[in-house]
Amino acid sequence: MKRARIPVRLIGTIVGAMATFVAIMSAIGTQASCASSYDPNKTTAIVAPDYEIYKNYLDDFLDRRCGTLDCHGAPGRAYRMFGSKGLRLPTGTLFDVALVSGVQPTTEAEKRANYEGIIALEPEEMSRVIARNGENPLTLEFLRKPLGTETGQPAPGTRAIGERHKGGQVLDESDPGYRCIVAWLQYPVKLLPLDGAIPRDTGTPDTGAAPVDAGVTGDGSVSLGSPDLDKYCTQLPAYR
Fold first, then answer.
1. Which residues of 65-95 are buried (b: 16+ CB within 10 A; e: fewer)?
2. Structural domain range at position 82
3. Three-class SS of residue 22?
4. Please, what's the b/e burial string for 126-143 (b: 16 or more CB within 10 A of its CB; e: otherwise)?
5. What is the mean pLDDT of residues 86-107?
């Protein structure tokens, strides 16, 4: 009895299929061994700029410049602002009925949401900038975009090359508002001892000295603990 002969081409097809199968199963096994289970309690530590400075100086300035209903005070924005000039933050209570744009002042919860919204735009990049004492802050889209124009062409005197901003240029690098934002990002902050937190130099970039707490100076004026913060941020309440 003669044994059936398998055509050479068929043998090649079978061998190729087996090799493909082995490769697929190997890849699946590798992914399964590397996968970790979902931990609903896991958190990621973010190195964030000082909230009190933002709340007391920058939030009102940004609300005036960017928070109207036709700008970032609209629900469809990636950077969305809540406040007296635009969108109000729902609280889930009867108070929401009376909370009207242009009537009540910005609430503490709205200021906190705005602060967290800035960080949430680029949390990893924000952590890097703050961990480096605010070095090269223009890596943040939050700071580059307001320097941009509707066409994406750089505005005169800015470094925001190629950035397009639908609302046009709303800041330039000589603005007290821009300088206050930069000083805020450079202000030394102390980290809580959270696992995974990025180390931060809590001294000033130039001297390494311990940061000076904000307070009242000898002449009765308020110091924010940084010359640039004192110079630019304290101008913002009257600056439009």
1. bbbbeebbbeeeeebbbbbbbbbbbeeeeee
2. 51-238
3. helix
4. bbbbbbbbbeebeebebb
5. 79
Contact criterion met (CB below 8 Å) for 54 and 71: no
Report the number of distinct structural domains present in the chain: 1
Would you say the pTM of this structure is higher than 0.85? no
Task: List pLDDT tens digits, range 56-93.
Answer: 989 998 888 787 776 776 777 778 888 888 888 887 77
- How far, in whole angstroms, is CA 220 from its chain's centroid? 35
Within a domain: 27: no
Both structure tokens of 95: 């108070």
Instruction: Kindly report, residue by residue over 38-62, the tens digit of the pLDDT.
Output: 787 777 777 889 999 999 989 998 8
Q: Which residues contact 220 (CB under 8 A, 6 or more apart)?
A: none
Q: What are phi and psi of 216, to 5 degrees?
A: -95, 130
Domain for residue 84, yes or no?
Answer: yes
